[in-house]
Design a protein that fits this description.
The protein has 181 residues and is an alpha/beta fold. Helix content is 56%, strand content 13%.
């Protein structure tokens, strides 16, 4: 299955992506993880991406799209994938559509994880990642509203919305149900 997960920072997409990937036997592809991995290894991409992650801004689309295109070329992604944190803008969604079209494949589902804003801020503050300071969290929320939320309309025809408040297992069960599993 080829699945895109959408949702604001702190919605728990990453955790659910790992569980879904295991259950469905496809890789989880998290652009945030790929960037953080490059940053910790000190690659050229990591050096370029770091200022954006530190500020909670989107890494420029060209860098991000190339990163995903390369990742989709790896053998394990041929039969399917779970995209976690990508696309994050209409521009990226259009780039993804081209990447899929040139491979002759299509998305099977887009799942939105929905959580009330007040709960998101509390969750993120408790997480303690380098970009989980209050100012950066606020900026990531703003970027989500401005850049990523328009994807809910872009993908309206394929969108499944999951209530992401509850235990990990409850949310996972809802996500599987949304995927018809
Ligand atoms: P969160 O769970 O808070 O959304 P992510 O790990 O998905 O965290 O992303 C962390 C940061 O990585 C973002 O704030 C952004 O700087 C960068 N990033 C991740 N995915 C993308 C993307 N698709 N496009 C641009 N920047 C991205």
């Amino acid at each position: 299955m080829r699945i895109v997960l959408l949702g604001p920072p702190g919605a728990g997409k990453g955790t659910q992506a790992v569980k879904l990937a295991e259950k469905l036997g496809v890789p989880q592809i998290s652009t945030g993880d790929l960037f953080r991995d490059n940053i910790s290894k000190g690659t050229e991409l990591g050096v370029e991406a770091k200022t954006y992650l530190d500020a909670g801004d989107l890494v420029p689309a060209s860098l991000t799209n190339d990163l995903v295109d390369d990742r989709l070329n790896q053998a394990d992604a041929a039969a399917g994938f779970i995209l976690d944190g990508y696309p994050r803008s209409v521009e990226q969604a259009q780039a993804l559509a081209q990447m899929l079209a040139k491979r002759g494949v299509a998305l099977d589902a887009v799942v939105e994880f929905r959580v009330p804003t007040e709960e998101l801020v509390e969750r993120l503050k408790g997480r303690g990642r380098a970009d989980d300071t209050e100012d950066v969290i606020r900026n990531r929320m703003k970027v989500y509203e401005q850049e990523t939320a328009p994807l809910l309309d872009f993908y309206a025809a394929d969108l499944q919305t999951v209530d992401a408040v509850g235990s990990l297992d409850d949310v996972f069960a809802r996500a599987l149900r949304a995927l018809g599993r």
